[in-house]
Amino acid sequence: MSFPIRMVVAAVFSGFLPMSVHAAGHETCIVYSNEAGRQAQEAIRLRCGFSGPVWSIDTLAHMRWCEGANDVSVAHERGERFNALRNCGACRDYATEAQQAAKTNEQLGCGFSGPRWQTNADNHFRWCLGLNPASTQPASPAWKERDARNAELANCRREFPKERIPPPKATSCPENMFLGKDGTCYPILR
């Protein structure tokens, strides 16, 4: 064995050079690839707009990547994908609530205007998705925006003359909303 090779071997065994991180196991990669495919499908269903190999629905591609990656990289990718998907879902919910509130503003004739009161859910969604911190956290601007919107609507409802209340439109509402006396579904304040 030549001198430089003996030095490298000695350095590895004596701890001077870092040992390689172990590759992810086959069972880990099966779980990873199936989960990645399901999450990519969910991102499509939610219309998150994510792209790139991380969001491919091809489970075999995820499997191939995983088999060439170490455990740390696999865990990191799983966490990143989970957080992005959770944020997307929260932003979809936010956008739906914002759109409903904007429609209620119009129905009640409150007269609120500006970005907070636009009826295009996709605009609310894109704004929310671009936030930092994530929209799933109470400190998020999305939560503060939702609370401000709900407070303005609550004030409008208190001032809304009874004779202008439109006829009932709904008999039940989704679980995250309540049915108002005017037959409109309103977001539940949290």
SSE arrangement:
Blueprint: H1 3-14, H2 26-45, H3 59-67, H4 71-108, H5 121-129, H6 141-159, E1 177-179, E2 185-187
Antiparallel strand pairs: 1-2
Key traits:
elongated, two-stranded antiparallel sheet, 190 residues, mainly alpha
Describe this structure in words.
The chain has 190 residues and is mainly α. It has one domain. The protein is built from six helices and two strands; from the N terminus they run ααααααββ. Strands 1-2 form a two-stranded antiparallel sheet. β1 and β2 form a beta hairpin. α2 (26-45) runs antiparallel to α3 and α4 runs antiparallel to α5 (121-129). The protein is elongated and about 65 Å long. The protein starts with a helix and ends with a strand.
